[in-house]
Amino acid sequence: MTSTSVIDAGSHPLVSGCPPEWASGWGQDRFGVFVEFTIENVIQRMRWIVPGRFLMGSPDDEPGRLDWEGPRHAVTIGQGFWLFDTPCTQGLWEAVMGSNPSRFQSPARPVERVSWNEVQEFVSAINRVKEGLGLGLPSEAQWEYACRAGSKTAIYTGDVRILGENNAPELDPIAWYAGNSGVEFELQEGEESSGWSEKQYQHERAGTHPVGLKQANGWGLYDMLGNVWEWTQDQWHDSYNGAPADGSPWEDEESGAPRVFRGGSWHNFARPVRAACRNRWAPVIRHDFVGFRCARVQG
Fold first, then answer.
1. Which listed CATH number (3.40.190.10, 3.30.70.1620, 3.40.50.620, 3.90.1580.10) goes with 25-297?
2. Can the peptide bond before residue 71 be classed as cis, meaning omega within 30 degrees of 0?
3. CA angle (114 as vertex; 99, 48 as ends), nearest 5
4. Which end of the chain is more exposed for a tag (fewer CB within 10 A), N or C?
């Protein structure tokens, strides 16, 4: 089961009242320490992810497992980091970039139709707007470590049963996936979903949903699974053989190599919506089910 203990933040600078200049809010709650920044009235919260050690990847007997999710291996996250508590919203993207590329338009929904290359442009732009913020994409290991929040199971609330192609009841409280992404979907622009097979709920039109509506994981992170896939910094490798054991991004010198994204999406079967599932695309590709969230390593 997921760890739900409060993060020990006693030595963190925010607790002693020393926030960075870019912070507009900070505090501590049952999930741990958080800090916020504001750009043009858009508030983004980040959660403090403490250092630790975990097993990355999936065991051989996990339902839905794919070959490139292994071999399972120990990774030590030696340095804590900040992570957006939600995917980057359209509101934040537009406040920084001045435009909104998304298909499912609304400020509270995750931005999508952004390529990995375009996310790098966003990162550069927001770091210019907020001097000292120092954002980037999380490494694949950081992403999985944060998603798991101390859990060792397929999803951060426990094991998952895949009863049908689009039917995994344990996903419903925590994730928007193809089995439920049409439930209460209110936009006129939507994907025709009446023909999707074996859905958990019947629906006719589907797409993304506003961030933060589903249950957070034990570290206060929302939509780590479902809604949109999330780009990471890493280049794609077909297995974890030779992967860094320190949580750093796994990058080679090959220009244009595919980049990893994680977490599953509103458009996906139940099978990929697991903490260990990984996929890839060329860094120039964009789609309406891929977004991102940013990380900041504590200096």
1. 3.90.1580.10
2. yes
3. 95
4. C
Q: How many CB atoms lie within 10 A of CB 286?
A: 15
Contact 267, 110 (CB under 8 A): no
- The letter for the amino acid at 154 is A
For 110, the token pair is: 């995750």
* CB-based contacts of 207, cutoff 8 Å, min separation 6: 103, 104, 181, 182, 185, 187, 189, 190, 191, 266, 288
Query: What pLDDT, in 10s, does the model give residues 146-186?
Result: 999 999 999 999 999 999 999 999 999 999 999 999 999 99
- Quick: pLDDT tens for 205-240: 999 999 999 999 999 999 999 999 999 999 999 999
- The ranges assigned to domains in the chain are 25-297
**Terminal Cα-to-Cα distance of the chain (whole angstroms):** 32
Residue length, the chain?
299
**Which pairs from 58-66 meet CB under 8 Å and 24+ separation?**
58/154, 58/274, 58/276, 58/277, 62/154, 62/274, 62/276, 63/154, 63/159, 63/160, 63/161, 63/162, 63/271, 64/154, 64/160, 64/162, 64/270, 64/271, 64/272, 64/274, 64/277, 65/276, 66/277, 66/278
User: Among 86, 101, 104, 14, which Cα is nearest to 44's?
Assistant: 86
